[in-house]
Amino acid sequence: MITAVGVVVPARDEEQRIAACLDSVLAALPPGVDAAVVAVLDRCTDATASRVPPGVDVLVNDAPLTVGELRDRGLRHLLARLADRADPATTWLLSTDADSIVGPGWAHDHLRHAAAGAHAVAGLVDLDPALDGAPDPGPEYTRIVGSGLRPDGHGHVYGANLGVRADAYLAAGGFPAVVHGEDHALVGRLRAAGFRVVTALDGRVRTSARTVGRAPGGLADLLAALEGTGDRGLPGGTVAGG
């Protein structure tokens, strides 16, 4: 039984978005469990830090770390915070992004899969152009996502909607220090180690449809490439988050 939940949100120059993201995360924390949320602020040059709401820990990074290292640093901070109240086998770690909004049942849906035996949950995201006034991503993105859907799950991985039991996370080595695709790499590590990864159709997260993102090779790069404005190519994996 999961008794503690930790949520990590990496952010870089997200003063316009981070408050709404973190407010949605705080509202989604399930009752009856210990919980902690951390925002990992990566070399921010704007007012992101001042927009973090009360109740959220803040880690400030000034080094040129990869997004995988940022997520890992945040999750290990959460594990230390929760260590006196829960052990890794009863702690669920969640990851989302600062340009995303989680639904009120987000954490609950993850914990329901955990109770059914999942060691990790890879959830879906729905692009919401209204979050940034971005153009609709168009039919090609819809086709890419749809091609990975199955009645019992899907073939996509997004750092904006990923959960893992802490003991499995530690045993698999955590998020690797990669520039992009850290979400796919973690899921690959978990599966290689024999852990059960559920690709969930519920517990979706709304995320920005912007074509200029913060992490190279992330979802924004895919959208830019589909729009014909990108110059870094398609990110690895079926659909990249992060």
TrEMBL record:
> Highest taxon of the source?
Bacteria
Q: Name one Pfam family in it.
A: Glycos_transf_2
Identify one Gene Ontology CC term for this UniProt entry: plasma membrane
Annotated GO molecular function terms are: glycosyltransferase activity
Q: Which residue intervals define the domain Glycosyltransferase 2-like in the entry? A: 7-126
UniProt keywords (A-Z) are: Cell membrane, Glycosyltransferase, Membrane, Transferase
Note the SUPFAM superfamilies from the entry.
Nucleotide-diphospho-sugar transferases
Among InterPro entries, the record links this protein to: Glyco_trans_2-like, Nucleotide-diphossugar_trans
| Recorded coiled-coil stretches | none
**Compartments it resides in:** Cell membrane
Instruction: Identify the pathway.
Output: Carotenoid biosynthesis; staphyloxanthin biosynthesis; staphyloxanthin from farnesyl diphosphate: step 4/5
Q: Does the keyword Aminoacyl-tRNA synthetase apply?
A: no
Functionally, this protein is described as follows: Catalyzes the glycosylation of 4,4'-diaponeurosporenoate, i.e. the esterification of glucose at the C1'' position with the carboxyl group of 4,4'-diaponeurosporenic acid, to form glycosyl-4,4'-diaponeurosporenoate. This is a step in the biosynthesis of staphyloxanthin, an orange pigment present in most staphylococci strains.
Q: Which PANTHER family match?
A: GLYCOSYLTRANSFERASE, GLYCOSYLTRANSFERASE 2-LIKE DOMAIN-CONTAINING PROTEIN
By sequence similarity, the record places it as follows:
Belongs to the glycosyltransferase 2 family. CrtQ subfamily.
Stated name of the protein: 4,4'-diaponeurosporenoate glycosyltransferase
